[in-house]
Amino acid sequence: MKTALKFKITATDNNARLGQIHTARGIINTPSFIPVGTIATVKSMTVEELKDIGAEIILSNTYHLYLRPGHEVIKKLGGLHKFMNWKGPVLTDSGGFQVFSLSPLRKISDEGVEFRSHLDGSTHFLTPELATQIQAALGSDIAMAFDECTPYPATREYTLKSLQLTTTWAARCLEARTGGQALFAIVQGGVYKDLREQSAEELIKMGFDGYAIGGLSVGEPKELMYEMINYTTPLLPKDQTRYLMGIGDLNDVIEAVSAGIDIFDCVMPTRNARNGTLFTSQGRISIKREEFKEDPNPLDPECRCYTCRNYSKAYLRHLYMSREILSMRLNTYHNLYFYLEFFRKMREAILNGEFERFRREQTPILQNNFHDD
Questions:
Q1: Is 120 one of the catalytic residues?
Q2: Phi and psi at residue 282, in whole multiples of 5°?
Q3: Is residue 259 within 8 Å of residue 230, measured between CB atoms?
Q4: Residues whose CB is less than 8 angstroms from the CB of residue 223 and which lie 6 or more positions away in sequence, other chains included
Q5: Complete edge-to-edge strand list for the sheet that includes strand 26-30
Q6: Residues paired with 33 in a beta bridge
Q7: Side-chain half-sphere CA neighbours of 124 within 13 A
Q8: Stretch 102-113: mean pLDDT, rounded?
Q9: What percent of the chain has a predicted confidence (pLDDT) above 90?
């Protein structure tokens, strides 16, 4: 089935790729970070603000929008873009990860997944066909195939069975697809290289519009995650979009870009912002700390975002300690700006053939921002 999505690589620096994803609603420059707007909103941000800081695509969640307000409601109101007044591209995930995270409330079968709503306890049955139909009703530009996110640790036997289920479900998603919506498949296989290879090979044969790597950052050690990223990425088609799902630590991002990954999503910048943790060019800051009570300086003197140009650390701390709504807005604005600016600089470095220099320069900054407490 022909879709409006096209991917073009415009420059490379070793395995790092600079590219463009062309959609009917706009171009996404890659490597790209996708802000997470789970329930048709990036928490505390307007779509105008997202556009102002350089966001080119938003991610929304099939599972959550199916439960509330309902995909048919959104369809009746003109689709997801009109519903949230976002004119750019939207990617919807399939709900597979959310179902995975509800393990005490769900039951998996070959047909699909029975689960209880986290909202009211009602029982639902999500199949690959329904996940595809929901995403079609939402009208996203890129839909994701329904998969089972393999937990860690998992035996080889369980991982193989999970992989086979994901492959079967992916084929059913393709069969259920209607219209010109792009559909990406999700490579599973846990931490077993041969199973990752099997998953990629089987999905590529089906002919999807792009390919994602799933089932990572679910508890495995960093070294093992990096090993899987570096092994799996070259297995994916060079001329199609490669998506690493749910990874947001910028140390991990830069490792994945060096392997050839194009797009990323994560709640890390927004969730941390709401908890008072802010990323800066000088390291991570917990704005609640007493030392900032009388600090007249901007959060990050090197940052040109609205928050840093207009407000002091003392004021940001005051807002946070007072539990003011404006605290979440200003903090989120800054953290997302920091992320999108990082990706812009990374694209510039790839274009100029200076990705490794950029990586060396950023390493101490990233270590200060993403160190373990």
A1: no
A2: -110, 5
A3: yes
A4: none
A5: 6-13, 16-23, 26-30
A6: 264
A7: 20
A8: 87
A9: 93
Give the sign of the dihedral formed by CA 272, CA 244, CA 162, CA 137. Answer: positive
Q: What is the pLDDT of residue 287?
A: 98
Q: Residue 373: what pLDDT? A: 60
Measured N-to-C along each axis, helices 193-206 and 156-176 cross at an angle, to the nearest 10 degrees, of 10
AA letter at 301? P
Among 189, 175, 176, 186, which residue's Cα sits nearest to residue 135? 176
**Domain covering 6-265 in this structure, CATH number:** 3.20.20.105
In the prediction, which pLDDT does 228 show?
98
**The tokens of 318 are what?**
């005051």
Residue 93 annotated in active site: yes
DSSP state of 36: B
Domain residue spans of the chain: 6-265, 272-369
State how beta strands 123-126 and 113-116 pair: antiparallel
* pLDDT at residue number 302: 97
Note the pLDDT of residue 105. Answer: 78
Nearest Cα to 184, choosing from 373, 3, 370, 372? 3
Q: Answer whether 36's CB lies under 8 Å from 266's CB.
A: yes
- Which entry of 93, 141, 147, 209 is annotated as an active-site residue? 93
φ and ψ of 336, to 5 deg: -65, -40
Backbone angles phi, psi at 212, to 5 degrees: -115, 155
Q: Is the pLDDT of residue 357 over 90?
A: yes
CA distance 217 to 52: 30
- What is the separation, in whole angstroms, between the first and last Cα of the chain? 49
| Residue 210 · residue 141 · CB < 8 Å | no
pLDDT tens for 139-193 read: 999 999 999 999 999 999 999 999 999 999 999 999 999 888 999 999 999 999 9
Q: Please give the DSSP secondary-structure letter assigned to residue 301.
A: T
Catalytic residue among 141, 147, 209, 265: 265
Report which residue type is found at 5: L
Residue 99: is its pLDDT beyond 90? no
Q: What is the pLDDT of residues 32-75, one digit of tens each?
A: 999 999 999 999 999 999 999 999 999 999 999 999 999 999 99
Contacts of 306 (CB under 8 A, 6+ apart): 330, 333, 337
Most distant CA atoms of the chain, gap in Å = 61
What are the φ and ψ backbone dihedral angles of 29, each rounded to 5 degrees? -85, 130
